[in-house]
Every structure is written in C-alpha cells, then in structure tokens.
Design brief:
It is a single chain. With about 425 residues, this protein is mainly beta. It has 2 domains: about 140 residues, Immunoglobulin-like, CATH 2.60.40.10; about 280 residues, Neuraminidase. The protein is built from 2 helices and 34 strands. The strands form 9 sheets. Strands 27, 30, 32, 33 and 34 form a 5-stranded antiparallel β-sheet that branches.
Length: about 425
C-alpha cells in the first residue's frame, strides 16, 4: 500500500505517542433510556457534557404496550438498538436512526415477553437476552444476525428470576450475563459457541439493569441498589477472576444503569443513572468516588446508558474471512485517522505523559499495521473522515489460511489545533479472526 507524505508523518506520530502529552478526551455525549411520564414521554434521549438534554425518540413512537429496557450503538455507529418488552406481543428489539425513526423491528421468539438487553458480538451480530415468567422466569440468550434471523440459542439456564443485562467481554469475546437468583444475584460467562454458562461471580447485593465491560482494567462494572440487604452498594466491580468488590457504597439512590468512560481517559469516570427520589444522570469519579450531577430530573426512570455516537469503531463480518470496520468520530469531519492492531491484547496500554494511554498492547503487529506493512490484510491503515465524520477500512485474511486469532484494533484522530496534535483515542475493539 502506498502512502502520501501526510500519512507517513501520521505513522511516525502514532509510533511516538509514548513521548507526547494530551488531555483526556471524554465521550461527547450519552444516550439513555428515559421512560418518562405522560407530560414528558421520552423513550430515548441524549445528554451532553454540559448537562443539556435532547430527545431522540418519544414513547409515543412505540406501541402503547411497549417498554424500552436498554440502548446500545449498532455496529454501523449511526443507529441505536433498543431492547423492548411488550405486553401484547412477543418481545423483540428495534433499530432506530439518529432522528428517532424506527428502521427495523425484530421478534426473536414467540416464547418470550421481556427483552432485557441487547449487545453486539465481535462480528456485529446481536446478542439478545430475553425472559418470560411471573414468580419464576425462563431466560435465554440468543445470537441474531443483522437480518433478524436467530442463528443460535446460546444458553437457557433454569431456576432463576429475571434477566438483568448482558455485555461483551472485550478481552475474550465471551458474553457476561446478569441474572437475579433466588438467594443471590449472579453473573455468568457464556462462550461465543454457546458453551459455558459458567458462574463468573455472585453477590447478595440486589443488582439493577446494566452491566458493562471496562476496557481499562478488564473488570465488569455493575449497577446495584443500596437500600436493601447487607453489604448493599450503588456500583460493583467484578474482576475477570470473578471477585466482586464495591466501587460506590452510597450517595445515590441506585445504580439503575452504569457505563465507564473511555479507557484512555486520565481521570476515568462512570456515568450512572439513579432512580427517584434523586433521579438523574451522574458522574462518579473512578478514583475518589466523588459524585457530580450531569443532569437531574424527577421525570424519568433511567434504565440504561451508553456512549452516544461514541463507539467509534464498529465491526461487521461480511464474509467468514473479511471484516468491515466502520469509523465514526462525531464532530471530527476532515480529520485524519490512523489505526493500529495488536494480537497481544489491550493491556498493558501504551502510557502517555499527562495521564492518557492508548488502550492497546504494542507488539510487532502494531508496528506492521501502522507502518503499512500489512498490505492486502489491513486494506487502509490511515485516511480522512468524510463530511459525516465517517470512513471505512477492512481486514481481509481470505486465502491466507491463518489459524484463529484475536486481534484488537484502536484508532487515533489527529488535529493540528488539538494539544500535541491528538484529538481522540478510540476505545479498542476485539475482532475474532
């Protein structure tokens, strides 16, 4: 692959990051499930870092019997995926564009009435967690392709109360599933091939609606309810080995929903939605646990929160050996980007003086990828974001016959007006080759 002098200078800059200093670049805004009252019937909204609230979709755009449970960004970085429950028909999920228009409605199975959560697989498919029941529940985890077809029933545990949430383990590609048990709340690990359902962690603290993988340290952060039971907490953290510890014991009425800030941020934070009587969206400092109000509102019952147009790198598997990487950096049209790959992982991250880091473990593949030496495999290792803040590149191993391997990718955007010329360090993504 040939590069312009501009792109060659980018590669040099990428490799010299450890000698640079830059301020933290947080997500620009957050999408959330609002489930408002009759006066403010918001189903999906967004809040920026100044606390300004905007409506993406009204509850009135949905059937009156429908209730939205979770939100995530789709693999195209431009649309939302909302998990729904509906008392009048089988549960499912919908895709919604930036204007709040419903693009697709997917019914996963006729047996379930609650879709608790949807997350994305490493290849862009949907991993859907559903339930049905009254005093006891049947739960199931499905893989659904991008056309809405169920391609696998991954796991059907028994003997538990409702499903709480599912997240992708960014280190392994496994699925971490939260269930409310009879005597304790439990997190299970399910392999992409459906094997497992292995108990990963347990707590007697009542869990709430969301768990999210934390790329910075490989832990999983979980929202909880501090008002019942011994050892109650607002936020919990589960290590990869299953040890559950408390991040925040009190100070909010609940951890209805939670998501960590960027892995590259120097002063990392958690964004947390709390329920009434102190309903709102808050930042919790990851080091001091200091609580800052982002937006306070008594009108909404928050259930889920996710980076709004902040996934940056979306992965869609187009063939068994070709992956499309969609890049989207809101507000950064015209900026140059550069990508680096690693087969080692995301830790230890490459530290940058000043506190930030590049969340990727640098190895020979990193050097080869940013230097343009993976011609034909990494189709484009640098480029320019278009007027819609987007670009696309591909990883293609067709005909190479390489064994299965995990590859992590991270992208930087460069801006001469930003400190040290670095605008954004994306969160890394896992691609299973």
């Amino acid at each position: 692959m040939r590069h312009s002098a501009k792109h060659l200078s980018i590669i040099g800059l990428w490799l010299s990051l450890v000698a640079l200093a830059a301020p933290a670049q947080p997500y620009s805004s957050w999408a959330f499930i609002g489930n408002g009252n009759a006066a403010q019937p918001m189903a999906l909204g967004a809040v920026d870092l100044s606390g300004n609230l905007s409506t993406i979709m009204l509850q009135t755009a949905l059937p009156s019997s429908a209730f939205v449970n979770s939100v995530t960004m789709d693999a195209d970085n431009r649309t939302y995926v909302l998990a729904m429950s509906d008392t009048n028909q089988p549960a499912g999920f919908i895709r919604v564009d930036a204007g709040g228009n419903v693009l697709n409605t997917f019914r996963v199975t006729n047996a379930m009435t609650i879709t608790a959560d949807v997350t994305l697989d490493t290849n862009g498919d949907y991993i859907v967690l559903e339930s049905v029941g009254a005093s006891t529940f049947t739960n199931a985890l499905y893989r659904v392709d991008r056309s809405g077809n169920v391609t696998a029933t991954l796991w059907m545990p028994s003997g538990f109360f409702p499903s709480l949430g599912v997240t992708l383990d960014g280190d392994t590609g496994d699925y971490l599933v939260g269930l409310r048990g009879f005597t304790s709340n439990q997190i299970f690990r399910v392999k992409p091939n459906g094997s497992g359902g292995v108990l990963a962690g347990t707590t007697n603290v009542p869990l709430r609606n969301q768990l999210a993988f934390e790329r910075r340290n490989g832990n999983t952060v979980i929202g909880a309810w501090p008002n019942a039971g011994p050892g109650a907490a607002v936020l919990l953290s589960m290590s990869g080995a299953g040890a559950v510890t408390t991040i925040l014991a009190s100070g909010l009425n609940s951890g209805e929903c939670v998501h960590p800030e960027r892995a590259s941020a120097a002063n990392y934070r958690y964004i947390v939605g709390s329920d009434p009587p102190n309903s709102g969206i808050f930042f919790v400092d990851g080091q001091t646990t200091a609580i800052t109000t982002l937006h306070a509102s008594q009108s909404y019952v928050y259930r889920h929160v996710a980076p709004n147009r902040g996934r940056n790198i979306g992965v869609i598997q187009r063939t068994p050996t070709r992956w499309e990487l969609n890049l989207n950096f809101p507000g950064e049209a015209g900026l140059t980007w550069a990508i680096g790959l690693s087969v080692t992982g995301t830790r230890p991250a490459a530290p940058i003086p000043g506190g930030r880091n590049v969340p990727i473990a640098i190895d020979p593949i990193t050097v080869a990828s940013v230097s343009g030496l993976l011609t034909g495999v990494l189709i484009k290792n640098a480029g320019t974001l278009d007027v819609n803040d987007n670009d696309t590149t591909f990883i293609d191993v067709t005909g190479l016959g390489i064994p299965s391997v995990n590859v992590w990718a991270v992208v930087l955007t460069l801006d001469p007006n930003a400190p040290n010329g670095i605008r954004t360090i994306a969160d890394s993504v896992l691609i299973k080759i």
